[in-house]
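Working notes for the structural subgroup meeting. M.R. asked for a predicted model of this chain before we commit to crystallization trials. I am recording the input and output together here so anyone reviewing the notebook later can reproduce the run.

Input as submitted:
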Amino acid sequence: MARPWIPLEMIQAPLLDPALPATPATARYALLINPFYPKDPHASFGKHVLTPTLALTSFAAATPPHWRVDYWDENLLHGRPPFNPLPELVGITVHLTFARRAFELAQWYRARGSKVVLGGLHVLSCPEECAPHADALALGDGVQLWPRIVADVEAGHLQPSYAATYESDYRDDPAPRRSLLPRKSFLTTSSLIATRGCHNRCGFCYLATEGLRMPYRMRDPAQIAAEFDADDQPYGVFIDNNLGSRREYLRSLCTALQPLQKIWSAAVSIDVTDDPSLIRAMALAGCTGVFIGFESLTDENLLDARKKTPRTADYARRVRMLHENGIQVNGSFVLGFDHDRADVFARTAQWIEENRLECATFHILTPYPATPLFRQMEAAGRLLHRDWSLYDTAHAVFRPRHMTPEDLEHGYAWMYQRLFSHSSIWRRRPEHWGAVAPYLAMSYLYKRSNRFWHLLIKYDMVHAVWRPLVELTRVRHLRFRRRLAERVTVSGSGNVVTAGV
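Returned structure, recorded in token form:
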């Protein structure tokens, strides 16, 4: 299988020139960095510029007003982070796949006199590994910790570590400081978060990390609606782990969002369809798409993963319910579970096509450090290595039970090749003829245009190109919502007759 096209700057981080001279650090100036990570050539480059990281803009909002604060995302292809003037304080978010790059950045700034704070999930799961690369570690809820860290830097007594739980009142968190964002670089800057946590605790999920206790917390629906309304964007993306964990809360949120006449998407679990009236409420509030972690079509795999979910035999009916309410489905599937055999790839692809999922995302099962899956794999001697840069769900880092690591990686690549093919895109077209043309346009732009995406990202054209398409989608959906509101539901099911979006 030929390797897909990918330019060097999508897989190689910008150079950090060690010869650049140091300059005095500028007092009360903080720089927040999202480090570079290599892109998967099999997937769409577009997913990396859908929305900005919410964590860093939230830290910016928690920064005292007498401090200057800047935001830098290396994945926008604007080059290495700024250094003139040199910031007094540098905050870097760390994920295991780009930990090496985060450490390189930390070393470069520390060598020139900046104080560097590392935070993020990898810091929580592997603090001993991260500590030598930082002046301080932020363990836990960074929004709580950041004002303390800034105050200690200003007072000249920064501590080596700071810890906070995720049990605070989520409603007290400040709204993200979106004014710092390069709006031209993202499809939308309205990345939103209404809840924190999930009612599932799957053994492979990062939420199962040892030491991470994240009880389900919710912000007032009115807060979220006001935040969304204040950002001049027609489309918002909820980055919650599972927006549907508390159904009555989601219903209240929909009530608050409906008057905005905007569109949005969110991650939910498939059991949100237990209540058909809630799906209808989501559609009437502007939900045009959901990201659903189906994970597997084999019940035994889901049982092993401790995922609370309906039987897989009922998935098709539930997907149909979402489609009938005009909600597109982006299905997420994990490959390499212990009950997966060589037929898992073709069987999963066929199911996706038969049920007309508009989009699908694939992940090789990856045992993240400090999760139950990692401990299980480690105890069984199934881990191949600890090169965190390859723990990116695109590489096999363990020995699967019923295939070789090479077979698993080949099957993963084949899945994207199959689902991004002309024939698969056509087979998954909507049943309603009026929705076919917009679906095809979005599918080809998102799934088969990585050369185009590369240019859009590099030359800051993402927002300019996508804004008219998003606005057209919003206008079409408003028309659909009016029809949906007038339509009588089918007795006993709550499902609408047809969508046409």
